[in-house]
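DATA SHEET
Item: assembly model
Revision: 1
Owner: S.N.
Input lines:
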Amino acid sequence: MEPFKTLTSKTVVLPVENVDTDQIIPARFLKATSKAGLGSKLFADWRFDAEGKPKGDFVLNRPEAAGAAILVAGDNFGCGSSREHAPWALVDYGIKAVVSTSIADIFRNNSLKNGLVPVVVDKAAYAKLLAAPGAVVTISVEDRTLTLPDGSHASFPIDPFARYCLLNGVDELEFLLSHEAAITSFEARRG
Amino acid sequence: MKPRTMFEKIWEAHLVRPADADTPAILYVDLHLVHEVTSPQAFTWLRERGLPVRRPERTVATMDHSTPTTPRGRDGKIPILDNAAAMQIAALEKNCADFGIELHALGSDGQGIVHVIGPELGVTQPGEVIVCGDSHTSTHGAFGALAFGIGTSEVSHVLATQTLLQQPPKTLAVTIEGTLRPGVTAKDLVLAVIARLGIGGGTGHVIEYRGSAIRALSMEERMTVCNMSIEAGARAGMIAPDETTFAYLKDRPRAPKGAAWDKAVAAWRQLPSDPGATFDREEKFDAAKLEPMITYGTNPGMGIPIGGDIPASLGPSDAKALAYMGLTDDKQLLGHKVDVVFIGSCTNSRLSDLRAAATIFKGRKVAPGVRTLVVPGSQAIKKAAEAEGLDRVFLEAGAEWREAGCSMCIAMNGDQLKPGQYAVSTSNRNFEGRQGAGGRTFLASPLTAAAAAVTGRVTDARDLV
């Protein structure tokens, strides 16, 4: 995993609450056996009509959204299915951070394992982002802050281990494998 | 010693390493359930790193999500027409063969929905930590286990190390006292809980369902309740094991036998939360006040009593949901036209669900123009239902009797709604397009679903008894 220290990008704003992972990537695209190329199916039923043509009014299809790496979305983003295809699709599309007032547990865990930063901010900071779609903002994992267009900083919670993994590009599986002796002794203890 | 909740007891018993200021806990996993959709990439990563599966005997695989449920051909085989699904199914067969994992393959007697076969086999047991790359893993909490869904990266962690890195969640007691009225089911109970908590209301929490109404439920009903914990945002839901639990498990193929059984039951009796144990939060419900429930919107928290009014649009997200559902001008759901009825899924595909539906179908016909699918959760349920003639009740009524699988709950296996169609479904999610792009889902109990099938309308099943 690539280290993630800071990111400066314009935002794309999707002001919808409870965006579930079935919207992020519909189940019919989960028949793949690799994670490559899922970005083309991101938000498929919101981005494309039944004939596969882009819907012009969907935020990601607007010209000003091109190149935005920070997705700002409504409360409880990523709820529902545990499919890791959701962060895979976002990352493959070019999204590197999701900002919301809350983020569902499994989606949050899955995102961190793919270098996609889950940023939870308060309602005031969210309102500012909503009011300025496309604004350029900066996320610092080091400082746990989001710098808003008006120059103010919003802090966001991130547990020390998740922050350490993001900053250093640490893969959790390597970390677990390094505790092999503790796992073996636990198994011996339990019989 | 400080009184502990059941969650705390199970959590503490599985700590390879407790959480500290810098790192999450390392939690040991007793049972890892695997299916074809969320595992192929994890096996690829193991191969890339040259890693074996650490404890294949603690791993059980089946295929359910992308498998067709169409009736068998003359050769006794279930035809797979979708190339991508066929490749995914073949990948799981190869992965299980290469890594030494028990697989209940398509067409075999043990195949079924992953959350149905675990309890059937008796591998789901009280006190265990159970994970699966599927959010409805919470189902297994009905046995007094800590069971939760994980992503594919975590699937690879468990395959390789039998452990997971976990931050300790908070606890939420959902206490339901009293007696459910006739015609009000476990599905209605959990839809009412989700309607109150909201789709994100349980985020960060493990729910323990408690109280006399929960104690009175059968194991199948308890599984229905725990199954939908994730629909309130809670990763896990659990119910203390008791005589009902032990009676269900006794003599299951993988349950302990003889002296080992007695020893296991003695240990399981220590699991329930101690008197005086404290939860981070509690919500109380009166079972006698609950009604049959149905959802009107595009998340499972948007539920109402079946005779109730559709809430007026409160904000842009609610308006979006009502517009998608085509309900902007409707006051109620009762009487609303239905195109498809789906009875199945890890929520409601067990024998008692099929029996409940059959009480409505018996002596009636599916309404003209309505397509009705009845999909047993496992091959074992299919066989048991056929042994008592339930299949004939469904077929004579004009419903389809299918092979076991997730079917129209996830619509990635050929079973799906057409755009604009309305379905009453016993499954767990009414998200936009969940049952097929453009499809519109009302979630309800098997009784309500069967009542919709025979009337062609959203109907209070109590009016048909």
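QC remark: The mean pLDDT of chain A is 96.
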